[in-house]
Known about the structure:
The chain is α+β, with helices and mostly antiparallel strands. It contains three helices and seven strands. A hairpin with a 5-residue loop joins strand 6 and strand 7. It is globular and about 45 Å long. It binds ligand K2U and zinc ion (ZN).
Amino acid sequence: xxxxxxxxxxxxxxxxxxxxxxxxxxxxxxxxxxxxxxxxxxxxxxxxxxxxxxxxxxxxxxxxxxxxxxxxxxxxxxxxxxxxxxxxxxxxxxxxxxxxxxxxxxxxxxxxxxxxxxxxxxxxxxxxxxxxxxxxxxxxxxxxxxxxxxxxxxxxxxxxxxxxxxx
Length: 167
Ligand code: K2U
Ligand code: ZN
């Protein structure tokens, strides 16, 4: 297993649209294991392959308290979205920034699991938020893009200043 480097906003690679996974093989399963190690160590409750510079349609989420309920979604499709709810979001690619985003309250998602088998999942609450957040990553979208242009500009400047301070 290996901890992977997480791309930091506004890295342009975060805006890449992920391609479908054609074959769920040992290489994909190794990437899933490395992503899980990276996510749990961050710590985070979700991670998209885009964030580790792998531009394929793969995301993982685990919203359990005990970090032992990993969901792997390959080539995820939103089948049903219901309701609307606002939630405070963060992102491992935008460290230290949290803000409210409105998303569907409940989603039904179809995807392939780590064995390449299709399944459907009905999610609500934090799991629904996280799945939608990660699916945005696969579309090349970061949650700060839902915020006002002024907020986005301030976040970019804050993060650029933080990088300069570490040099
Ligand atoms: O995409 C990521 O970087 C994973 C996010 C998942 C997340 C998105 C939206 C709302 C909650 C979680 C990271 O886990 S951010 C860290 C975090 C963890 C729990 C709650 C809020 C933020
Ligand atoms: Zn994120």
